C-alpha cells in the first residue's frame, strides 16, 4: 500500500542532498549532493550516473541502443573524472554552451528500469534536475516504493475564507494540500453556478508572469482574463495550481529561460533540461474539484491536453471555452511553439 508521508519524506531527502532507496537501489541527487556525502556513500568511486533519455539525447547518446528511447532512463558509467562538479555540469544544460565536451560517456545496461524511472520522477517532483547518482551504500536513506511515486494524487482541504476581489461577485479562497507531495494549491470559488456545469480555469502558477508581469509568456493576462470571464458569468472556479514552468519548478523554468535566450524554443528548452515539454498532470485539480462538489465543468482553455488530463482524472468536460491572449513581440515565438509542438489551439 502506498504511503503519502513516505513520499513526502523522500522528496525532502533529495532536496536536502540525502539519499533515497527505491527497489533496493540508492539514489542521490546530483544537484544537491555534496562531495562529502558522495564520498560517504560511494567510497570506491564506482557510482554510475542516472539521467533521463531526453538529457541523454541532448548529450548525443541517443544513437546508442541503451539511449534510443527518449522516455527511458539511461545509466552512465562512472569514470575518474566524473566527480560532483563534473556531474553537475553534465546534468545542467545551462553549462552545455560554456564548457568543453565531457566524456567519454559510457551507457550501461539498466538492471531495474522501474526503480530508475521512479527515481527520475521523484527528482522532478522535488523540483530538481532529473540526474542522480546510483549508490550502493544507503546510510540514513529514506526508503520509498515505486508504487508510492506513481500513486494517484489526492488532496486535503486545509482552510476556507472569504476573499473580496475588485469588481467580482462574492468569492471564497480554499486551500488544499496534496497528500502525496505536500504541495499547496488554492481554489477561488466565485459567485454561484447552480446545477449547470461550472466555468472552470486551471491556472498553473507563474511567478514571473502573474506577479512581475513578464512579457515572455501570456500567463498574467490569462489569469486576469479568466477571473473577468468567471465574474461576468456570475460564478465559477479558478484553480491556482503549483505547477510552475509547466510542472518543472521555478528554478528549472529560469534555466529554460536561459536556454531560450540562446535560441531554443520553450519545448526544446524543457527537453534539453531532461523534462518532457509539459510535466503537468491534473489529478490534484480533479481531486480539488471533487472536494468542492464539482464533477462536470466548462473548461476555459486552449490546451487540449488539459481537457484530456482532467477527463482522465475523472472530471467530465461538458465544453471547452476558448481562452487566448494577443501576442506581443516578446512572446510571439513562445505562443507559436506551443501551437506547433504542444498542440495548443489558436
Structural class, judged by helices and strands? alpha/beta
Envelope shape: globular
- Side by side, the strands of the main sheet go 5-4-3-6-2-1-7
Into which percent range does the helicity of residues fall? 25-40%
Which stretches of 5+ consecutive residues score pLDDT under 50? none
* Rounded mean pLDDT score: 87
Q: Which architecture of the largest domain does the CATH hierarchy give at level 2? A: 3-Layer(aba) Sandwich
Domain module tally: 2
The end-to-end span amounts to 44 Å
The CATH topology annotation of the largest domain reads as: Rossmann fold
Explain this structure.
- This protein has two domains: 4-150, Alpha-Beta Complex (DHBP synthase), CATH 3.90.870; 155-243 and 280-342, GTP cyclohydrolase II (Rossmann fold).
- It is built from 14 helices and 14 strands.
- The chain is an alpha/beta fold.
- The longest helix has 15 residues, at 219-233.
- The termini are far apart.
- The relative contact order is 0.13.
- The strands form two sheets. It has a seven-stranded mixed β-sheet. A seven-stranded mixed β-sheet has the order 8-9-10-12-11-13-14, sandwiched between helices.
- Helix 10 (250-261) crosses helix 11 (266-272).
- The model has no long low-confidence stretch (mean pLDDT 87).
Amino acid at each position: 500500500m502506498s504511503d503519502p508521508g513516505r513520499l513526502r519524506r523522500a522528496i525532502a531527502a533529495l532536496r536536502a542532498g540525502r539519499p533515497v532507496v527505491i527497489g533496493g537501489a540508492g539514489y542521490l541527487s546530483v544537484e544537491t549532493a555534496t562531495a562529502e556525502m558522495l564520498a560517504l556513500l560511494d567510497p570506491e568511486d564506482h557510482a554510475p550516473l542516472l539521467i533521463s533519455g531526453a538529457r541523454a539525447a541532448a548529450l548525443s547518446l541517443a544513437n546508442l541502443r541503451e539511449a534510443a528511447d527518449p522516455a527511458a532512463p539511461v545509466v552512465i558509467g562512472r569514470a575518474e573524472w566524473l566527480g560532483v562538479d563534473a556531474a553537475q555540469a553534465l546534468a545542467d544544460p545551462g553549462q552545455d554552451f560554456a564548457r568543453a565536451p565531457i566524456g567519454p560517456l559510457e551507457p550501461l545496461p539498466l538492471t531495474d528500469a522501474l526503480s530508475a524511472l521512479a527515481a527520475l520522477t521523484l527528482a522532478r517532483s522535488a523540483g530538481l534536475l532529473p540526474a542522480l547518482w546510483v549508490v550502493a551504500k544507503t546510510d540514513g536513506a529514506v526508503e520509498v516504493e515505486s508504487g508510492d511515486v506513481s500513486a494517484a494524487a489526492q488532496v486535503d482541504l486545509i482552510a476556507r475564507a472569504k476573499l473580496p476581489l475588485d469588481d467580482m461577485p462574492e468569492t471564497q479562497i480554499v486551500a488544499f494540500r496534496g497528500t502525496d507531495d505536500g504541495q499547496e494549491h488554492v481554489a477561488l470559488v466565485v459567485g454561484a453556478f447552480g446545477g449547470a456545469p461550472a466555468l472552470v480555469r486551471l491556472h498553473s502558477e507563474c511567478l514571473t508572469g502573474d506577479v512581475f508581469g513578464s512579457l515572455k509568456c501570456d500567463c498574467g493576462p490569462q489569469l486576469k482574463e479568466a477571473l473577468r470571464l468567471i465574474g461576468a458569468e456570475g460564478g465559477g472556479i479558478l484553480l491556482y495550481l503549483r505547477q510552475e514552468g509547466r510542472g518543472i519548478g521555478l528554478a528549472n523554468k529560469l534555466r529554460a529561460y536561459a536556454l531560450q535566450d540562446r535560441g531554443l524554443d520553450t519545448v526544446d528548452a524543457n527537453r534539453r533540461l531532461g523534462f518532457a515539454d509539459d510535466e503537468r498532470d491534473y489529478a490534484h485539480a480533479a481531486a480539488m474539484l471533487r472536494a468542492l462538489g464539482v464533477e462536470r465543468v466548462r473548461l476555459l482553455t486552449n490546451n487540449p491536453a488539459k481537457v484530456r488530463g482532467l477527463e482522465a482524472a475523472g472530471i467530465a468536460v461538458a465544453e471547452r471555452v476558448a481562452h487566448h491572449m494577443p501576442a506581443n513581440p516578446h512572446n510571439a515565438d513562445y505562443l507559436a511553439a506551443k501551437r506547433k509542438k504542444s498542440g495548443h489551439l489558436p
